[in-house]
Amino acid sequence: MASAGRPAVSQAPVVGTGTIGQRRGFRHDNLTGYLFIAPWLIGFFAFTLIPMIASLYFSFTEYSVLSSPRWIGLDNFVRMFTQDARYWNSVRATFTYVFTAVPLRLIFALAVAMLLNTKHRGVSLYRAAYYAPSIVGGSVAVAVMWRQIFGTEGVVNAVTHVFGIPSVTWLGDPATAIWTLVTLAVWQFGSPMLIFLAGLKQIPQELYEAAAMDGATPWSRFTSITLPMLSPVIFFNLVMQIISGFMVFTQAFIVTGGAPLDTTLFYALYLYRRAFETFQMGYASAMAWVMLLVIAFFTAIVFKSSSYWVFYDNKEGE
User: Most CB atoms within 10 A, among 64, 157, 158, 201?
Assistant: First the structure.
């Protein structure tokens, strides 16, 4: 109520200038953020999303680059699964490689990581030396070097000849060719080794000391402490190595070329030949989508099974 002798003044709502300024600042911040991520967005749409959509369409067509794509429905997939014997050779070679190279590489990487998880003098130099082969990962130079090492007159045969062992055509024998590529994969263990090493350093030493006081053997400490505490790292390495194993290309392309008798004709190599040697882009696109589904399937299995063997600290109170 207005006081006596003073006119009443209506209290109209006033729009604060601060609100408008905050909105303008918010829009400005958003625009700045979008500008910063614009290069990634452009690259994602131009080189990932749009090509994936295009390859999905091409997988249902007959397309040779030199002519317009012609819709053929599921013919590429039917041909792939029922008429192409070399396709199944590539599947067999790829699965053999993945299910041998990936476990051996992880086991070897974990063993070396445990050896290097010490405070001995010069251990940093050894870590750098063991990681060096992975710096040049799937490079052509490493593949060429490997082809020379396992060639008929290579280093391996020269060493075995000293001990009176006859020369072996490592790259020309169907029984040994793929194992040269598996050995190359195991030799390049540096990346998973570093990840294992980082995980080992996060395990409290008090656990090992308490177990030793209770009389636990080294093997018991490894199975009861190291493996459970390291299981999230093992899970990560396993997923990454499975994905990279299915996509292996350079090693087979340079070292063996898919020979002999298609025993090293890996899936990615056969896909490349279909696409860029015979220009069957539609068929190659269909192969690529099948491989995507296969990788997704095995990755999903690993994720689904992780609840049984991967242990996290935050689950203690659950």
Answer: 157
Do the domain assignments include residue 191?
Answer: yes
DSSP run (H or E) holding 47: none
Range of the domain at 247: 79-313
Structure tokens at 214: 């209770």
Residue 213 token pair: 């006081």
Write down the pTM of the prediction. 0.86
| Cα-trace Rg, the chain | 29
Query: Which of 297, 285, 245, 316 has the alpha carbon at shortest distance from 97?
Result: 245
The two structure tokens encoding residue 59: 């997988």
Angle between the 50-58 and 281-309 helix axes, to the nearest 10 degrees? 120
- Cα–Cα dist 318/310, whole Å: 15
Which stretches of 53-179 are assigned E, i.e. beta strand? Answer: 61-62, 70-71
Largest CA distance in the chain: 123
Question: pLDDT tens-digit profile of 107-164?
Answer: 999 999 999 988 777 777 877 887 877 776 557 888 999 999 999 889 999 999 898 8
Tally the C-alpha atoms within 13 A of residue 18's C-alpha that lie toward its C-beta: 2
Do residue 112 and residue 198 come from a single domain?
yes
CB atoms within 10 A of CB 212: 13
